Amino acid sequence: MELNRYIDHTLLSPTATEADILKLCDEALKFNFYSVCVNSCYVPIAKQALGHSKVKVCTVVGFPLGAMSTEAKVFEAKKAIEQGASEIDMVMNIGWLKSNNHVAVLKDIADVKRAIGLIPLKVILEISELSKNEIVKACEISIDAKADFVKTSTGFSKSGATLTAVKIMKKTVKDQLKIKASGGIRDAETALKYIDIGVHRIGASAGVAMMTDQISHSSY
């Protein structure tokens, strides 16, 4: 099992510089990670740095709150793809979900998916803010909206991925959607536990530490 091919090598800090993004891309090339995950303003730089390599460019949309208009999310997603993004991680509108406005949540995701076509769409649920029933509902809506993945967390809330939440997600989506675990995964042992229970992708800023088996003190 090649752990490196499960990793979206991630840098989403608002203070990340162009030099930081280039370093991220260099690391991704060195370890042949699945992708780099960057804020959408850095998609062009990442795409150029990665060239014709196998490493994909993943970007986030509606990040990190998910509370902007659907139209803004659609525009951001389409623009990112034009500039070279191969995958989109969008934040679900958590407030609408908690308002039981499930139609609006569905439309928000479905409109982005329709706009990007065959490009993989990962829906970030922000599990730390949701009850078990809300996690289940969020997964069901993501299935109905034709998303490709459900993702645990932004890494910017009070906590990140948990094995318990991922098990709930897996039980709900079965094989209809893939799962990405992100937020607080900092070592290979933890990453492998998630993969063992059915996760298809790991979002982490500690990818290098995982691959070199060093302890990372990353804040993500």
Fold blueprint:
Layout: E1 7-11, H1 18-31, E2 35-38, H2 43-50, E3 56-61, H3 70-82, E4 87-91, H4 94-98, H5 102-116, E5 121-124, H6 132-144, E6 149-151, H7 163-173, E7 178-182, H8 188-196, E8 201-204, H9 207-212
Parallel strand pairs: 1-2, 1-8, 2-3, 3-4, 4-5, 5-6, 6-7, 7-8
Helix pairs in contact: 1-2, 3-5, 6-7
Question: What would your notes on this structure say?
Answer:
With 220 residues, the chain is of the alpha/beta class. 43% of the residues lie in helices and 16% in strands. The protein is built from nine helices and eight strands. Strands 1-2-3-4-5-6-7-8 form an eight-stranded parallel β-barrel, surrounded by six helices. The longest helix is centred in the middle third of the chain and has 15 residues. The protein is globular and about 45 Å long. The C terminus is likely disordered.
Give the key terms:
8-stranded parallel β-barrel; disordered C terminus; globular; 8 strands; single chain; about 220 residues; alpha/beta
- Contiguous uncertain segments of 5+ residues: 214-220
Mean residue pLDDT = 95
Strand order of the largest sheet: 1-2-3-4-5-6-7-8
Please describe the biggest sheet, giving its number of strands, its sense, and whether it closes into a barrel.
8 strands, parallel, barrel
Structural class: alpha/beta
Measured distance between first and last alpha carbons? 25 Å
* Morphology call: globular
Whole-angstrom Rg: 16 Å
Number of strands: 8
* Tally of separate helices: 9
Query: SSE string, helix = H, strand = E?
Result: EHEHEHEHHEHEHEHEH
Instruction: Report strand %.
Output: 15-25%
Helix content: 40-55%
